[in-house]
Design a protein that fits this description.
The structure holds two protein chains of two kinds. Chain A is mainly α. Chain A is built from 16 helices and four strands. Helices cover about 65% and strands about 0% of the residues of chain A. In chain A, a hairpin with a 4-residue loop joins strand 3 and strand 4. The radius of gyration of chain B is 30 Å and the shape is elongated. The chains are: A mainly alpha, B alpha+beta. Chains A and B meet through helix 4, helix 9, helix 10, helix 11 and helix 12 of A and helix 2, helix 3, strand 7 and strand 9 of B.
Chain lengths: ~575, ~350
């Protein structure tokens, strides 16, 4: 955390050996492009995923900046109405299907899950690689829609608009369909891995909470994503062959599509958020130097969310004309979802109590998460309540709400996890000071961008509007200014992360003092993870760890170390 | 619960009493707005409380327990069932209240009173058509103040959504079905209508206004606007009304018998009624059959026709009669000279007020 010299005692008795790491680790084991493209190593697949999803995030961010720039003035600023419609469709589809859904599980989860579990790899390494290739193919289809005329349906593909517009809907939908399989394979792999590859001693309740979160996520990926697959397939069939499934002109029902779509896409919200919560449970404990508070409640609340998320899809359709009874049931169930979320928030808070709180970059993001996800969750109450949802539905209030959960929750947690595991993944420390500055800028920029959207939304500004009434101009301009600030923060982040790879200080095995298994191996980890089954203890008991000035990290007092 | 409801409503609706635009919410111009707004503010203050609690404690803990020389973590339990139950049960109770009031407010928003004035809405890319009971169609929505308005809405193409922020009303308009919403405007004036469901290139230009007229002024506006009765020949206007106002469901034009007698060759001949008497089908016969259908049931038919008293204006009655006449060899020649003027057509027995529309 604040150590200086690090490599001199590389072969010390504690065994936190960064010299050994640089000679043989997963990054150096095998050279050349084919050793990556054909790898079955979960860590390398995780890194490949990371590169891809970071590029997707960049792409989605560029679309966001173009949208925000267009909205600087009520009339035309830089693009025309059709281009604007394509931009928000691309922004939504790229961010959700290419970044948020695979972001934490497939990239960071792939890297960390087997290490934290104590396994040599995931259960099906080939399937793991295949899921990455499917991601790439799906991404190509989705992005290719740009040159094929651009889809303009919004990421929700609502019928009958999506079956009647003459834009490149099929390419985009095919992309999402393929990406769905990538997601299913990842989920399936993690489920089997957690069930079958736990080493002796790694009982369910010895598992780090990150694994509980990923487990809940995997259940949803496997059960919900096929529904999206068949729905998108039906959409393609209707468009190409004229089957009347959703189009009333052909005898179909457009609201049926909404039911099918949200039956996947509401669990998908939790596919995105549950891993974010899972990371929070690790970071609050490690950086407070305190045992996680309420382990079992957090673990079970992950499972509760995974189950409840399947029962609330109708709350996206309160204005669609579904029956009052359906609205009654879905509203009630929606409120039940907020309880497990509240339990987690309170438990993280209690974890900090009487701790020794280290404000390193990952923890700055975790604290940001409390603030932004707190707002994201609480504003959900306005939308779960039927009377107020009617007014707020399809306005900027919704846009602000889901950005506070998706960005303020998932992206913030992703950034926390990225900074948390970066030293482990690449064996290099980034510039801590720049890291904190970037985190601060993200916080300010994000709130400036999206808090104003709550106000204009509750004032009645509808979403997906190219033109807007003059009275909303000031809100849009503040919002756009905030988005530029965020862009600066992300370019700063890009700078110091790339710099760390080139000239960063070598990372110690355990820079933050975590007690989950990945911190007991070298940074970066060895190719084979564990030579023998690792010793499994309480992942949140930090009493055996002490700060070691020489390595700039934490070491085990009892001599337990990297194998 | 109702005393509690009143208390909460007055407490959280306090800032909104005059109905002006506030920091969070637009102007209130419907009966529903007040109700929605206090629920909004109730949730708002509840959320603010929990937000300040969570973020306040977070900041407090960071300040008190931040890592610094001489500070170490202190032991404290890492589990407490009592705490877990507390912070599960208390929010659950509060959530129940939010749910309950949200649902109650919603039912008020979606169930129109039975005496509502009905206006048809047809949405299409990227314009609105509002159809009034007299068949007149306008692009902006005109309504009387202080009167419940029931909108029966459908779409010609893709999904749209009817949204008036000042009324706190929103309902999707789905092709192939009718979705219903309602509101009661409380202030004369002009209010923004948005399309709230994305519908393509002109989505953000699919705008219209609700123009709320003072009591009495609305009827005058509609009467003046519904000029088609004056512009078209009476028989043509009558044909339009025949199609729009529900005559055609029962009365055919080709002589086949449905629920009521066909209009073909009806005028100018004798009809036998159920009581055995005979009546010559001329103007007054049709007029009475529309305003008091049960008084003259033609033999062989059931007395199922609803009265159109108060639902049809004199001009419309006249137009429909002209249309019926044009379908008969007896009426076609006479039609030019014998169309009764409005003064002649004053009702003889019509003492009731038009409280049925």
């Amino acid at each position: 955390m604040n150590g200086s010299d690090s490599t001199t005692t590389a072969d010390s008795a504690a065994g936190y050996s960064s010299a050994q790491a640089s000679s043989d680790n997963y990054l150096t084991h095998g050279k050349g492009i084919m050793s990556w493209l054909g790898t079955l190593d979960h860590k390398r697949i995780g890194v490949m995923y990371l590169g891809c999803i970071l590029f997707s995030f960049f792409l989605g961010g560029i679309f966001a900046l173009l949208i925000r720039t267009e909205l600087l003035t009520p009339g035309k600023t830089i693009v025309d109405a059709d281009q604007y419609n394509q931009l928000f469709t691309l922004h939504g589809a790229v961010m959700i299907f290419l970044f948020l859904i695979p972001g934490i599980p497939a990239a960071l989860g792939n890297f960390a899950l087997p290490l934290m579990l104590g396994a040599k790899d995931v259960a099906f390494p080939r399937l793991n690689l295949m899921s990455w290739y499917l991601w790439v193919i799906g991404a190509i289809f989705a992005v290719a829609s740009i040159v094929m005329g651009g889809a303009d349906t919004g990421w929700t593909f609502y019928t009958p608009y999506s079956t009647s517009t003459d834009t490149a809907v099929i390419s985009m939908v095919t992309g999402a369909f393929i990406l769905g399989f990538s997601s299913i394979f990842t989920g399936l792999n993690f489920l089997v891995t957690i069930h079958r590859l736990r080493p002796p001693g790694m009982t369910w309740f010895k598992m780090p909470l990150f694994l509980w979160g990923i487990y809940g996520t995997a259940v949803m990926q496997v059960l919900a994503t096929p529904v999206l697959g068949i729905t998108l397939l039906l959409l393609i069939v209707e468009r190409t062959l004229g089957f009347g499934i959703f189009d009333p002109a052909l005898g179909g029902d457009p609201v049926l599509f909404q039911h099918f779509f949200w039956f996947y896409s509401h669990p998908a919200v939790y596919i995105m958020v549950l891993p974010a919560m899972a990371i929070m449970s690790e970071i609050f404990s490690v950086f407070s130097r305190k045992h996680i508070f309420g382990y079992k409640f957090i673990a079970f609340s992950s499972i509760a969310l995974a189950i409840l998320s399947f029962l609330v899809w109708g709350h996206h359709m309160f204005t669609s004309g579904q029956s009052a009874l359906a609205n009654f049931v879905f509203s009630a169930l929606t409120f039940s979802v907020s309880i497990p979320t509240a339990i987690k928030m309170f438990n993280w808070l209690a974890t900090m109590y009487k701790g020794n709180i280290h404000l390193d970059t990952p923890m700055i993001y975790a604290l940001t998460f409390m603030f932004t996800f707190g707002i994201g969750g609480l504003t959900g109450l306005f939308l779960g309540a039927l009377a107020t949802d009617i007014h707020l539905h399809d306005t900027y209030f919704i846009v602000a709400h889901f950005h506070y959960t998706m960005f303020g929750g998932t992206v913030i947690a992703f950034l926390a996890a990225l900074h948390y595991w970066w030293p482990k993944m690449f064996g290099k420390m980034y510039d801590e000071k720049l890291g904190r500055i970037a985190a601060g800028l993200v916080f300010i920029g994000f709130n400036t961008t999206f808090f104003t959207q709550f106000i204009m939304g509750s004032q009645g500004m509808p979403r997906r509007y190219y033109h807007y009434l003059d009275e909303f101009t000031i809100y849009h301009q503040i919002s756009t200014a905030g988005s530029y600030l965020m862009a600066i923060a992300f370019f700063l982040m890009l700078y110091y992360l790339v710099k760390s790879l080139v000239s960063g200080k070598p990372a110690p095995a355990n820079p933050w003092g975590g007690n989950t298994l990945e911190w007991h191996m070298t940074s970066p980890p060895p190719y084979y993870n564990f030579k023998e089954a690792p010793h499994v203890g309480d992942p949140y008991d930090f009493s055996d760890l002490e700060w070691d000035e020489k390595t700039g990290g934490y070491v085990s007092k009892s001599g337990r170390g990297a194998s | 619960m109702s005393m509690l409801t009143d208390l909460l409503a007055s407490l959280f609706g306090m800032a909104l009493l005059n109905g002006e635009k506030t920091f969070w919410l637009p102007e209130q111009a419907s009966t529903a707005a007040k109700n929605v707004d206090w629920i909004f503010m109730f949730i708002y203050w509840l959320s603010t409380f929990f937000f300040v609690l969570i973020v306040g404690l977070t900041i407090l803990f960071v300040i008190r327990y931040r890592a610094r020389p001489g500070h170490k973590e202190q032991p404290s339990p890492s589990h407490s069932t009592l705490l877990e139950v507390t912070w599960s049960v208390i929010p659950s109770i509060l959530l129940f209240f939010i749910f309950y009031y949200g649902y109650k407010g919603f039912m008020d928003l979606v169930v129109p009173p039975s005496n509502s004035y009905e206006i048809g809405v047809t949405a299409q890319r990227w314009s609105w058509n509002f159809t009034y009971p007299d068949g007149y169609v306008s692009e902006n929505l005109h309504v009387p103040v202080d009167r419940p308005i029931r909108l029966v809405m459908t779409s010609e193409d893709v999904i749209h959504s009817f949204f008036v922020p000042a009324f706190r009303v929103k309902r999707d308009i789905v092709p192939g079905r009718y979705n219903v919403t309602w509101f009661e405007a409380t202030k004369p004036g002009s209010y923004q209508i948005f399309c709230a469901e994305y519908c393509g290139t002109g989505h953000s230009d699919m705008l219209a206004q609700v123009i709320v007229h003072d009591t009495g002024e609305f009827d005058r506006w509609l009467e003046e606007s519904s000029g088609f009765l004056d512009k078209l020949a009476p028989a043509e206007a009558g044909e339009l009304l025949y199609k729009q106002r529900g005559c055609k469901q029962c009365h055919t034009l080709d002589g086949t018998i449905k629920i009521g007698p066909s209009f073909k060759d009806s005028y100018g001949i004798d009809h036998v009624l159920t009581d055995g008497s005979t009546v010559l089908a001329e103007e007054n016969y049709y007029r009475q059959s529309m305003l008091d259908p049960q008084s003259q049931i033609v033999a062989g038919f059931d007395p199922v026709m609803p009265t159109y008293k108060g639902r049809l204006k004199d001009k419309e009655v006249t137009a429909i009669i002209a249309f019926i006449k044009s379908l008969s060899p007896y009426g076609a020649v006479e039609a030019e000279t014998e169309t009764p003027t409005e003064s002649e057509a004053q009702p003889e027995t019509d003492s009731a007020t038009d409280d049925l529309d």
